[in-house]
Design a protein that fits this description.
There is one protein chain. By secondary structure, this protein is an alpha/beta fold. The protein has 2 domains: 205 residues, Rossmann fold (3-Layer(aba) Sandwich), CATH 3.40.50; 90 residues, Rossmann fold. The chain contains 13 helices and 10 strands. The N and C termini lie far apart (54 Å). It is globular, with a radius of gyration of 18 Å.
C-alpha cells in the first residue's frame, strides 16, 4: 500500500528539489501583463522551460532521486504530453530508454516532441490511460514508473516554482494554477504555505473538464463528464483520490472558465505580451480576468506553451 502524500509537502523537500534540479530546469521569469483587468496580473512563464512546460521540474527531481540500478532498465510514464517530454528529456540526458503512454486524443505537437526526444510512444484509450494514473502503473512495462502527478518527488519539484514566485513578487496576493492532476497546484501551494502563508492559491479549470470544482461542491471526488478539447493539459474524469487531501486543504477555490474565455486569453497573451501559451496556461489568465482571485497582485502560472500552431492560427483568423 502506498503511503499517503504529506499535506503540505514539506518545505525542506521543495528546497532540496530546487538545489537538485538547478541546471536542468530554468528559473523562469515573472512579468506583468499590462491589460485592463479587475486585478494586477502577472505571468509566471513556465512555457520558457526547455521542454516548453513546468513538467521538467518534477521529472528532473523524481529521476534524480530514483535508484540508479532501477533506472538502468529504463523509465516510463503516462502523460498527455508535457510530463512525457519532461521524462523523455531527462532520460535522454542520462542515456536511458524511455516509454510514454499517451491517451488517444493527445495533441500532435506534444506527441511529436516526445518522439523527437527519442522516447517510444504507446497510445491507449483514455479509460485505459486514466487507469494507469489511478493504479500507479500497469503490467507490461519495464523500468521506473514516474507518476505525472501524485508522486512526492514530482510535487516537490513542481513546488520550486512557488518558491520563485514568492522571491520575485513578495507582495503577491494570489496565485492561479491550471489544474490537471493537481501536482503543480499542490506543489506551488505547499511552497507558499511555508514561505508566504497569506497568499491564496486558486485552481483554474475549463467548464468541459472541471472535476476539482465538482469535488469541491460535493466535498469529495466525484465523476465528471469530461469532454476533450484543445485545452488538453488540464481536466479529467475525476480528481485523483490521493491528490484530494492536498487539493482540498491547500487550494482556496477552483475558478471555472469557458473555452471561449480561454481562446480570448490566448489572443490577449499573444497580442499584449508576445507569449504563446497552451490552453491550460491561458486558462489561468482567463480565470484571473474574472476577478474571482481578488483585486490585488495575482500571478497566473503559464504552465506550458506546447500547442499546435494550426490551432492557434485558427483562433487568430478573422
Amino acid at each position: 500500500m502506498r503511503a499517503p502524500l504529506p499535506v503540505p509537502v514539506p518545505l525542506a523537500e521543495i528546497e532540496a528539489a530546487q538545489r537538485r534540479i538547478a541546471g536542468t530546469a530554468v528559473r523562469t521569469p515573472l512579468i506583468r501583463l499590462h491589460i485592463d483587468a479587475p486585478c494586477e496580473l502577472w505571468l509566471k512563464l513556465e512555457n520558457l522551460q526547455p521542454i516548453g512546460s513546468f513538467k521538467i521540474r518534477g521529472a528532473a527531481n523524481a529521476m534524480a532521486m530514483a535508484d540508479p540500478d532501477a533506472l538502468s532498465r529504463g523509465v516510463w510514464t503516462a502523460s498527455a504530453g508535457n510530463m512525457a517530454q519532461g521524462v523523455a528529456w531527462c532520460a535522454r540526458e542520462r542515456g536511458i530508454r524511455c516509454t510514454v503512454v499517451v491517451p488517444e486524443h493527445a495533441p500532435a505537437a506534444k506527441v511529436h516532441a516526445v518522439e523527437r526526444l527519442g522516447a517510444t510512444v504507446v497510445r491507449r484509450p483514455h479509460e485505459e490511460w486514466w487507469r494507469i494514473l489511478v493504479e500507479h502503473g500497469a503490467p507490461g512495462f519495464d523500468g521506473v514508473f514516474i507518476h505525472p502527478v501524485s508522486e512526492r518527488a514530482v510535487i516537490a519539484g513542481n513546488g520550486t516554482a512557488g518558491l520563485e514566485i514568492a522571491a520575485d513578487l513578495p507582495d503577491v496576493d494570489a496565485v492561479i494554477v491550471p489544474y490537471g492532476g493537481g501536482g503543480l497546484a499542490s506543489g506551488i501551494a505547499s511552497a507558499l504555505a511555508a514561505v508566504a502563508p497569506r497568499v491564496k492559491v486558486h485552481a483554474a479549470e475549463v467548464d468541459t473538464a472541471a472535476p476539482l470544482a465538482a469535488a469541491m461542491r460535493a466535498g469529495s471526488p466525484v465523476p465528471f463528464d469530461y469532454q476533450p478539447s484543445f485545452v488538453d493539459g488540464i481536466g479529467g474524469r475525476s480528481v485523483l483520490a490521493d491528490m484530494w487531501p492536498l487539493a482540498s486543504t491547500l487550494l482556496s477555490s477552483s475558478i471555472v472558465v469557458t473555452l471561449d474565455e480561454v481562446i480570448d486569453a490566448l489572443r490577449v497573451l499573444l497580442a499584449r505580451a508576445r507569449v504563446l501559451a497552451e490552453g491550460a496556461g491561458a486558462a489561468a489568465v482567463a480565470a484571473g480576468r474574472t476577478g474571482q482571485a481578488g483585486h490585488g497582485k495575482v500571478v497566473c502560472v503559464i504552465s506550458g506553451g506546447n500547442i499546435n500552431l494550426e490551432t492557434v492560427a485558427g483562433f487568430l483568423a478573422p
